[in-house]
Amino acid sequence: MPSPGKTVQPETIPFGSLALFLALTFGIAWGILAAFIFLPETMVGVFGEITGQHPLFYLAVWAPAIAAFIVVFRLSGIEGLRRYLGRFLIWRCPRGWYAFLLIGVPLVFVAGSLMKGNISETGFPFDSILSFLGALILIAIKGPIEEFGWRGLALPLLQRKVAPIWAALILGIIWGLWHTPAFLLSGTQQSAWSFMPFFLGTIALSVIVTPLFNASRGSILLPALFHFMLINPVWPEAQPYDTYLFALVAVALVWLNRKTMFTRKYSITEVIPGKRTSSP
Fold first, then answer.
1. Using the 8-state DSSP alphabet, how is residue 216 labeled?
2. pLDDT value at residue 191
3. Is 278 a residue whose pLDDT tops 60?
4. Nearest to residue 169, comparing CAs of 227, 198, 217, 210?
5. Separation between Cα atoms, residue 160 and residue 46, nearest integer Å
6. Alpha helix locations (H) across the chain?
7. Is 174 exposed, middle or buried (0-12, 13-18, 19+ CB in 10 A)?
8. Who wins on pLDDT, 167 or 185?
């Protein structure tokens, strides 16, 4: 029998399952949005105008998480899925990362707004605290849920083959391209943005979140918190300067974490954590 506290080898989610994950992720999201792009009258007639708050838009946004749940459950069953979801409860990491998440990220937006010259125009964008709390809840259950797929499954699989810096760049490109249909569809927030700054910014954000992911031993919670902080509606509008600043932050973090970003030695590669058993 295993000795007390000994880690049992977890069920393996093979690297090849990344293809299934991406097929599902792009198929769900692009399928929904493409229907509104190419069959607008039919889709609007049945489901109504698409907006960033439309249930089908939420479903498209949740595609990475849905795909990850399907892949994990298909390959490891309910027990594997339970252990995978348990990574959302991992919260321990070096304190410096919490300072970055809670103080550094807002400062980037403030600095970007100062560079843009519109900081004096910034105000509280809600009529009441209740409307503000409601907006935060909707934001929390929207974009951050993506991280169950991107950092929950795709990143650890990529880190089995390449160093974190390359995994971050590859995933950043995939992440950015995945958003493409939203830029082509009126009614979405992205339709008012320029794609290239967003695309480059997504790559920078992927680089930033990768050392956080590894430092937190594979947490899904902390990348989700990072995602939440990025889309908090309270921060001042700072495009494109916030993108430039996040790119600089990404370069700085790669330099500060150069001993771990360019080797797979310290990479988190488990999708399903090992469980601990004890002797009877």
1. T
2. 74
3. no
4. 210
5. 44
6. 17-38, 40-47, 55-61, 63-85, 95-99, 105-116, 129-140, 147-149, 155-158, 164-178, 180-183, 195-215, 221-230, 241-256, 258-261
7. buried
8. 167
Q: From CA 145, how far away is CA 55, in angstroms rounded?
A: 14
pLDDT digit string (tens) for 89-130? 999 999 999 999 999 999 999 999 999 998 878 777 788 889
Task: Give the model's confidence band at 9: pLDDT under 50 very low, under 70 low, under 90 confident, else very high.
Answer: very low
d(CA 228, CA 8): 34
Q: Which amino acid would we find at residue 57?
A: F
Query: Encoding tokens for residue 82?
Result: 């339970």
CA distance 77 to 83: 10
Q: Two tokens at 37?
A: 């792009």
pLDDT for the residue 10: 45
Contacts of 150 (CB under 8 A, 6+ apart): 64, 171, 175, 206, 223
- If one compares 50 and 169, the residue with the highest pLDDT of the two is 169
User: Do the beta carbons of residue 14 and residue 147 sit within 8 Å?
Assistant: no
Q: Which residues contact 252 (CB under 8 A, 6 or more apart)?
A: none
Please state the pTM of the whole predicted model: 0.91
pLDDT at 276: 53
DSSP 63: H
Find all residues with CB under 8 Å of 280, minimum gap 6, and list them. Answer: 1
In angstroms, the CA 132 to CA 25 distance is 30
Structure token digits, residue 13: 């989610």
Residue 246, pLDDT score: 97
C-alpha torsion angle, residues 232, 233, 234, 237 (rounded to 10):
110
